[in-house]
User: Fold this.
Amino acid sequence: MTTERTEIAEKNKYCSTKDSVISVPLWLEKMLRMLETNEITETIIGAAIRVHKELGPGLLESAYQECLFFELQQADVQVEKEKPLPLIYRNVKMDCGYRIDLLVEEEVVVEIKAVKAIEDIHIAQTLAYMKLTNTEIGLIINFNVTQLTKGVKRLINKYYEE
Assistant:
């Protein structure tokens, strides 16, 4: 890489590889990652809507979880169900039995609910899972509503580190 290109990359805060400078500013790279994450959440919400249209409200969370897991697999999305979540306390790994309902594309935590309303404790739980997994985006999807879009809450982890 030439010195001139290196200086330009540093001056404009461009991303660089070992052999060349990629002409994508860091802010644009972040924007592209955000758009990709938005596509993932859009896919998740679309799949949840299909499940809700088919089943309606009133079932157990486990039923919605299985069906949403199936829908996401059918959409060729990488998804993990009931992912174990260890807790690190004073540098010791504790097995407390925490499990994320769904982890999609290793980027989005999905917590499934079938409750009257999403409560602060549900938000706190999901934010804690997001912090422990260092994921930026989380979705709480409450299937116990007449219109699913009213049961979706998107969360952002302010402690997320790239």
